Amino acid sequence: MFFFILTNNNSNKMFFLFILFFSTLISISSNSWFGCWIGLEINLLSFIPLISNSKNLLSVETSLKYFLTQSLASINFLFMILIKFSLLKNFDMNNIISIMMNSSLLMKMGSAPFHFWFPNIVEGLSWMNNFMLMTWQKISPMILLSYYFNKNFLIFMIIMNLIIGSLGGLNQTSLRKLLAFSSINNLGWMIFSIMISENLWLFYFLIYSMMIFMMISLFFLMNMYFMNQLFINNMNFFIKLNLLINFLSLGGLPPFMGFMPKWIIINFLLINKFYFLTFIFMMTSLIIIYYYIRIIYSSFMFNYFKMKWVNLLMKNNMSLINLSSFISISSMILSTFIFM
Amino acid sequence: MMMMKFLFMMIFMIPLCFMKNMFWLVQMMLFFMMFLFMNLNLNIMCFFNMSYMFYCDIISFGLILLSIWICSLMIMASESLFKLNFYFNFFLFNVIFLLIMLYLTFSVLNLLLFYFFFEASLIPTLLLIIGWGYQPERIQAGMYLLFYTLFGSLPLLMGIIYIFNDLNTMTIYFLKFFNMNMYLLYISMIFAFLVKMPMYFVHLWLPKAHVEAPVSGSMILAGIMLKLGGYGLLRVMIFLQEVNLKLNYIWIIISLVGGLFISMKCFCQVDMKSLIAYSSVAHMSMVIGGIMVMNYWGFIGSYILMISHGLCSSGMFCLANINYERLHSRSLYINSGMMNFMPSMSLWWFLLLSSNMAAPPSLNLLGEISLINSLVSWSNISMILLMMISFFSAGYSLYLYSYIQHGKYFQGLYSFYVGSSREYLLLFLHWFPLNMMILKVDFISIWF
Fold this sequence. Notes:
Subcellular location (chain B): Mitochondrion membrane
Oligomer: heterodimer
Number of strands of chain A: 0
Number of domains of chain B: 1
InterPro entries (chain B): NADH4_N, NADH_UbQ_OxRdtase, ND/Mrp_TM
Keywords (chain B): Electron transport, Membrane, Mitochondrion, NAD, Respiratory chain, Translocase, Transmembrane, Transmembrane helix, Transport, Ubiquinone
Number of domains of chain A: 1
Radius of gyration of chain A: 20 Å
Distance between the termini of chain B: 25 Å
Structural class of chain A: mainly alpha
Largest sheet of chain B: none
Shape of chain B: globular
Shape of chain A: globular
Order of helices and strands of chain A: HHHHHHHHHHHHHHHH
EC number (chain B): 7.1.1.2
Helix content of chain B: over 70%
Helix content of chain A: over 70%
Largest interface: A-B, 26 and 32 residues
Strand content of chain A: under 5%
Family (chain B): Belongs to the complex I subunit 4 family.
């Protein structure tokens, strides 16, 4: 993100990026619920300048939609905090107020059933802004969720996330919307992990952000936004292999890195005896793998069109791509030396 | 220690795949590794060669030998990739990666690692089918392969982790001391292997994957990937014995009756590879029947039939590819009268097809006799089904032989060479273990 801001001659946005990072830290490390709310508001206010670009009408519209939905959620959150302080004097987590607070935080994250703004907005953002939206913006609502959650409500939301994330992506051709629905599905996994422990969530979140970063940087460098663009590009062999490995890893197939967080979460699911929920996790994961493989058809088939009008800039700068593929394949095996 | 050295030998063959002019050297190294592996100390009654996370058992030993053998023969059969310069470096890497995954599947002590490598072996197979196959339908075939297998094996992951949470151990050896008799666990554990075998109702991926795969993909699918299901069943059924005794009749009946239907369906096939694929399903149906009966002859018969079917089907796919490379068609209408042009190849067609129909002195015969013994001892009525399956397998093997070799040849042929030494060697190496191992079967049929 720094690299993008520096190279696009847009370094006045660096200030807002710094405030964005700082706001998340305010939110998750505050002693009082008001501090959390303040952090969320500063987060919203600093993200809007990052995504809006006054020369592009779609970008302005996107930032307006983002502002409206997120501020609605923030106001809701503030209101529920005040009700909790004034009316309820207990620490019980399974009541109606926790449902309302969780709902407002879920809406900030883009989780089902409040997800309708999320694919809309990612369609209007560039790849790097999408990366921030899908990874960094989820940190503070997740952690705030872990402070006061309603278990039954969240399990229902997890099921909705999984099903909507998997079935919603079946009819999409835009790569950004596909990654948005996969992000909604992965939110289901992350909400469950944060119900277990924050450490587990951090593990899942870090691996997920690393995989999303590798994919989004690949799409950003190739300037690809739609599925038909995957077939007419002069992708040479290593780029194809990297795409293949990253998507299979994100789907959670062994032997790639993405299998490990899913395996550990299934372990905790079965320890806590959520048998039917595990089955839903598995089956929606299958549907997700289906549309990932649809994206990587072009990498499976080795011969490609060599179009003369497509200029591939990446021929000389392969080291990052090779490194990321190598990490994805070998990290499972290397991690056995650490953990086992 | 003894098992890890082979793992490292295979890992260090990977850089060798990417150097220039190393195609045949990799194949020779795999043969070399095969001969080294055969010299391991073999103790038939227990687990041996145990080191950090590896072990070797009589079943694992035979199946690892089979996988190394088939992988080296895969490279020998794919010379056309090397000649046409079609990504043969990555092909060699794929083959060795697949061999590493299969080797690890058969030799790790931990049940979860077994699952990990079981799933990991799917990815190179998928790459082989979609990357080096030659028809547009291969995408659909790859989808079917991946999703049928994943649909079965994700509940297997759930079952394995449930076992870990209950028993606090994942070592395969210790599982025989426990009794987990739960119906849902039983279904989740064995469904993956039944899909992989494949059993009749979930067999649809197999003909598609075999037809669309290149010769190397077909060889490895028929040779080893189906046997992963059998191996998994043999490992997993130990701790589910009571449920097995109550419920196994379902799978025996489905697979035997299904085998009968599939054998009859073989007579309707026009595509050579499709016929061989359906015959694989019929053989595997008998294997499932033998394992599910859970008597000693059943296990022995299914193990022998797994090894012999791996060699025999793989050889038949090589033969089908030899015809395909010359006539560019797999159809029975075009591949007829081959005896007029390639009489020596017709010898190999006959030898491998006679092994397929379980004629003596092939190892298939011993497997089928043991399976008939075990299934008839379980129930007399299975005599009828087994009789029909064996009869039809003889029927379609002779049907295939006669249609391809006898009769008038297709007039649209131009010219092709009769049969290179490489192809004869390939077929000889398939046939020789198959028909000579019958002379000393005690190392695969006496377990205790």
